[in-house]
Design goal:
10 helices; three-stranded antiparallel sheet; mainly alpha; Four Helix Bundle (Hemerythrin (Met), subunit A); about 220 residues; Arc Repressor Mutant, subunit A; about 5% strand
Length: about 220
């Protein structure tokens, strides 16, 4: 998993952009490992649609498909809405304190424009909700889609001069969970995912069209 995450980090950071060649020997050398774990990691990433056969031979990074991204976020809205509801029903003071700690870390990462930490904190926040919900199927289902979400966040963050602060939305989710308001928790969680989808997909569309996403026209 360490090798897979290292390759994925190269992709989400933009160091390996869409259609970039993925050189197994170079990755193995950079990570100080043999070719076997690299091959295994690339096999997993290929099955997840992150890399594909390149013209000629070898592999390349698959560009993000916006229709697929929209489908992922549509699914997230439903599943994470459920997670928010169940988390509110099973709230605990200790768990809520953890949520607030993650929010503080996320805000600090935004202030410092620490992109890798921003993505990590966002993942930690949503995984906190999954765990608090107490339904292991939620985490298992979402695990299959977080690779795409990481790519989306990484690509948008590294092309946006002023990273968007999503942590005020996260605060609303924590407040609803802390209050034990299941309806509100589901509502604000779904709203957060839907808003994120609109923002991310529009940014990706502008990036793929070659438009400056930081211009007034955006």
């Amino acid at each position: 998993m360490r090798v897979k995450e290292a390759i994925l980090d190269e992709i989400t950071s933009g160091r390996l952009g869409p259609k970039s060649r993925v050189i197994q020997d170079q990755i193995a050398k950079d990570l100080g490992v043999s070719r076997q774990p690299v091959q295994q990691a690339l096999h997993i990433l290929r099955s997840q649609g992150v890399v594909r056969d390149a013209p000629g031979r070898g592999l390349e990074v698959v560009p993000l498909d916006l229709d697929y991204v929209q489908n992922v976020y549509d699914l997230r809205a439903v599943i994470e809405g459920l997670a928010g509801r169940q988390a509110a029903l099973r709230r605990s003071e200790q768990a809520v304190r953890k949520g607030k700690e993650i929010i503080d870390k996320g805000k600090d990462a935004v202030r410092r424009s620490a992109y890798r930490e921003m993505v990590a904190c966002d993942m930690e926040f949503h995984n906190w909700i999954y765990a608090l919900a107490g339904n292991p199927l939620i985490s298992a289902t979402m695990d299959t889609h977080w690779t795409t979400v990481q790519r989306v966040m990484g690509e948008v963050l590294h092309s946006d001069e002023k990273p968007r602060n999503i942590w005020n939305q996260h605060e609303k989710i924590v407040e609803a969970i802390a209050d034990g308001d299941a309806d509100k928790a589901e509502e604000v969680t779904k709203e957060h995912i839907i808003l994120s989808a609109g923002y991310m997909i529009e940014r990706l569309r502008l990036t793929q069209s070659g438009t400056d996403i930081n211009s007034d026209a955006s």
